[in-house]
Design a protein that fits this description.
four-stranded antiparallel sheet, 2 domains, globular, single chain, about 35% helix, alpha/beta, about 15% strand, 12 helices, Rossmann fold, six-stranded mixed sheet, 10 strands
């Protein structure tokens, strides 16, 4: 896992760069986004991972030009977004954590059409853009519904359609999975990944939900309380260090902890981060263990002859302080 960012020689200017930014709120709460530069290349899916109150939203608000740094540097598409957001406003979409703050019109169509109408697009073009955004998010059937009466998941999709209506190159999302049931979360993950794959949309996602990171991230930045960026890497690299996550007040994925514990006990199966990868690793390990046993076993007389036997493994010495014997780790 990299602790520094080294741009390649001749590389294109990144879509987003935030370097050692400090911001002090009116109540004197200070957020210092330093440690590592936050850099997002074109077409990347970048996840900002950290506990509540660590500065994830502050980082996003600087990217969106809603806050201006008191020191440090913020550049989005090469400009300071706090001073020149009008130059990039049609290239950036946003989904706020509280979508009720983002939905400002009475009906779904009115809300999604607000930006193109405000920017002076002709009526026919507005209709085309809105219909396309509603179709992409899967809520065309809600176009005439009153936003106030929609469910939380439907409101989030309306806000997302409004963020996508201008077909932005960069989409910033603040805790987009907050309050969603598993099915809605899976739908949103699939939708965002399709946007990335089909439209090459650059994604910046702030979340504390470690369970969506594997499916959503090319690069992960880990924040601790106060805003320090302590680590950067792929999901595999970041989750390889559960102790670092725990020190940042982030609960590591269960699979990451399980396979780390197995490795400590002498059973090295890699560090799978999904159920499918874990199942495959266990099956491959079982097959490797079964082959030598099958080669050395003697023929067995009787009805059990010819049947494959699973090799008996000696019990592993479990440390009760680490959750062995059915206890929970604390």
């Amino acid at each position: 896992m990299s602790r520094e960012t080294h741009p390649a020689a001749g590389a294109r200017e990144p879509v987003v760069k935030v370097s050692c930014v400090r911001h002090t709120y009116p109540d004197r709460t200070q957020v210092h986004l330093c440690g590592l530069d936050f850099v997002v290349e074109q077409g990347q899916r970048a996840v900002i991972l950290g506990p509540n109150g660590c500065g994830k939203s502050t980082l996003l608000f600087h990217i969106l030009g809603l806050l201006e740094p008191q020191e440090g540097e913020v550049a989005v598409f090469g400009v300071n977004p706090a001073r020149h957001f009008n130059r990039i406003r049609e290239r950036v979409g946003v989904l706020l954590q509280d979508v009720d703050e983002q939905i400002i019109a009475p009906t779904v169509w009115d809300d999604v059409s607000f930006s193109p109408r405000s920017y002076g697009y002709r009526d026919a073009e507005v209709d085309r853009m809105v219909e396309r955004a509603l179709e992409r998010v899967g809520i065309a059937h809600l176009r005439h519904k009153v936003c106030h009466y929609l469910s939380g998941g439907e409101k989030r999709k309306v806000a997302l359609a409004g963020a996508l209506v201008l077909e932005p190159e960069l989409l910033a999302l603040d805790e987009p999975f907050e309050g969603l049931d598993p099915a809605s979360r899976a739908d949103l993950v699939g939708l965002l990944n399709r946007l990335h794959d089909d439209q090459s949309v650059t994604l910046v996602i702030a979340t504390h939900d470690v369970n969506v990171v594997k499916a959503m991230a090319d690069v992960v930045y880990v924040l601790v309380r106060g805003g320090e960026i302590v680590a950067q890497g792929t999901p595999e690299e970041v989750f390889r260090e559960p102790a670092l996550l725990r020190s940042s007040n982030i609960e590591p994925p269960v699979l990451a902890e399980l396979f780390q514990r197995l490795e400590e006990l002498g059973v090295s199966l890699g560090r799978p981060l999904s159920i499918e990868e874990a199942a495959r690793a266990v099956l491959e390990w079982g097959a490797r263990r079964a082959r030598p046993a099958a080669q050395t076993s003697e023929p067995t007389a009787g009805p059990a002859a010819g049947k494959e036997r699973w090799p008996v493994q000696p019990s592993l010495p479990l440390d009760p302080t680490r959750g062995g014997g059915g206890g929970q780790e604390r």
